[in-house]
Amino acid sequence: MILVVSYDEDHTLDVVRRLERAGREVIRVDLADFPARAVVNLDYADGERPDCGLTTRTGYASLGGCRAAWWRRVRPFTVDQRLRTARDQGFAASETGQSLHGLFHSLPCTWVNPPSLDALAHHKPYQWETARRAGLTLPRTLVTNQPERAREFIRDVGIGRTVFKAFLAHTEAWRETRLVRPEDLVQLDAVRYAPVIFQEFVPGADLRVTVVGERLFAAEIDASATSYPVDMRTVVDQAPVRPVTLPPPLTDALLRLMGGLGLVYGAVDLRRRPDGQYVFFEVNPAGQWLFVEHRTGLPISAAVAALLARLDDREPERTAAPPPLAGSAA
Fold first, then answer.
1. What global pTM score does this model have?
2. How far apart are CA 253 and CA 261, in angstroms?
3. Could you read off the pLDDT of 257-314 as tens digits, one per residue?
4. pLDDT by residue (tens digit) across 152-165?
5. Where are the domains of the chain?
6. Which CATH architecture has domain 120-138+203-285?
7. How far is CA 156 from CA 14, 126, 153, 181, 282, in A?
8. 216 has which bridge partners?
9. For the domain bounded by 141-200, which CATH number is listed?
């Protein structure tokens, strides 16, 4: 059995269909269904292996036979609207998190990616330090909520050569990477409200490298001639996309990065400067790959399905329990 933790709007259906056509049993779970629209039952009795069951919109599933699990994309828990106070809603979400995360960590299966390591790897300062130790080049970067430090950094790097960005890009509050313009300087005092990432702008072509186990699928996305070359995410439909081959030292460094973070899957964003040097920006442990696959023909979905199938064929292993995740899924 293969467990997939994601939601309908995420692009996981192709992988699920591939697995089902190959005769695999796949259970998909959306954490946003819990606890208001779904049920968890963990039955411990007489020292036997517990009966771990989830009842969701798609029916009942016992997870005792799960050998592979895909921690793809998660949403916050949905509590019953009859709970009126923030305290009661928070308590219900916390208790749900304790039960479900405890269940997930207790399963004798291999995760892509382990949930606790996936959560940790989303933190960019941790990524950057792990990338530096892996031998990757980083852009000059400042994270600060002190306006004076931000002004000093911009003076050193230069207006029009400094970008600022958010740590997380949510669809509900999307913020693209932007160049600092002269008119932005009057708003720098707002930095005191939350830390901001400032970086030296790196010219060149973007690369999206999708890592699936030991396999790397690299695509060049050249946004330099588009309407917004600062952030390829906003103009990916305008930019040419083509598969590329990475130099072996870069491949080795990216695999060291993934190993240092404990990730099995990740979507890495790099930029290749005109002088040929590769600069690391970030790795998204749940990054999208279909736009690359559709534009290049790189068989990423097939690789993800094959990885999960191989893990499903392995004998269950018991490893040291990862640190628990507190609170609700985010």
1. 0.90
2. 12
3. 999 999 999 999 999 999 999 999 999 999 999 999 999 999 999 999 999 999 999 8
4. 999 999 999 999 99
5. 2-112, 120-138+203-285, 141-200
6. 2-Layer Sandwich (3.30)
7. 48, 25, 5, 14, 23
8. 211
9. 3.30.1490
